[in-house]
Amino acid sequence: MITVDDIVHIIQQEAGEDALRLSGAGEGDINEPIRFTVRTRIAWLVVNLGATMLSASVVGLFQGEIARFALLAALMPIVSALGGNAGTQTLAVVVRALATNQLTSSNTLRMLAREFQIALCNGGALGLVGAVGSYVILGNLQLSIVFAIAMVINSIVAGLVGVIVPVALDKANVDPAVSSAVFVTTATDVMGFFSFLGLASLWGLGG
Amino acid sequence: MITVDDIVHIIQQEAGEDALRLSGAGEGDINEPIRFTVRTRIAWLVVNLGATMLSASVVGLFQGEIARFALLAALMPIVSALGGNAGTQTLAVVVRALATNQLTSSNTLRMLAREFQIALCNGGALGLVGAVGSYVILGNLQLSIVFAIAMVINSIVAGLVGVIVPVALDKANVDPAVSSAVFVTTATDVMGFFSFLGLASLWGLGG
């Protein structure tokens, strides 16, 4: 006999396990010996450390610009964080659509087009807010324009990568719910830093 | 009659909905009009934009140091990202432990002590890897030591905040699964930047 209580219990467990797997926190047993927990969690932290070194090396390319104009270093985490958040939203939608068979090869292109439009709207709106806000606070028009354009670009990267990564992993028979996030946030970090610092460099900010 | 298929279907839906709520992506209906999706998602992106501006203003405090030593800007996202990942792991464990009533006021202190020890181990190990790696690549011993200490500090912040935030939200009858992440990652971003740039400044790096 399966009771409603059993179902509620399973659902709670499953939902919790999903968050645990996503974060690389293993089983999440709060009573296991600490050395087991340390070992489980560190693997995922090392993977992420490696991924972050990629984006750090992108920042390293623009040391000259940053040295001449240190405000770039203050604004660049905003661009990468917006991309990370937008990418995680797209990812959640796509992973669910894959799991419920709503997203198949027949409508993947439509999904890409849809996320592109959403990214354009949200990136545009937040870019505008960011540009106006940064102009009011910092008073550098050129910097604010570069900031806004980079936010639009990274929002679009987030939308596209948020569809392409889980679809590709699903095709390769890898569970997209577990492994997508690190690829998506690495892409949005790298592209966030690169688009913002690259545009700033092109336009002679910090030149 | 409840069939096994029904249960599997509910579990898949619930797990997906959890990821959707966590990311602020609403219902995740891939067929709703785009303007609805834009409106749902943008609210969460704006909240996160506000949170990121906090950490950006911390970086802004250290513009002088960054201008004199731009490598700081390349390493600081690694410190904040490690904290974000470690905090998310602790969060996943604590949210599950709260949902399954394994974590109560009687063992919260024990949980804090546990996460502190895990953070010390993982932060220490990754700090060591980071220090050796950055020394091999950049050859600046003082920078590598500051980098390692900041990683340990931020790892500990992540472990403590990852327990305190969801427990406090739960006490205030707010669903910790939905709202904890933005507080935890804001804390690890702010403390990651502050500890790394602050120590660098104290020790005269970029001075």
Automatic annotation (TrEMBL), chains A, B:
The keyword Transport applies. The chain crosses the membrane at residues 42-63, 69-95, 116-138, 144-169, 181-205. The keyword Magnesium applies. Belongs to the SLC41A transporter family. Residues 76-199 form the SLC41A/MgtE integral membrane domain. It is a multi-pass membrane protein. Keywords: Magnesium, Membrane, Transmembrane, Transmembrane helix, Transport. GO terms for molecular function: monoatomic cation transmembrane transporter activity. It is found in: Membrane. It comes from Diploscapter pachys. GO terms for cellular component: membrane. Gene3D superfamilies: SLC41 divalent cation transporters, integral membrane domain. This is SLC41A/MgtE integral membrane domain-containing protein.
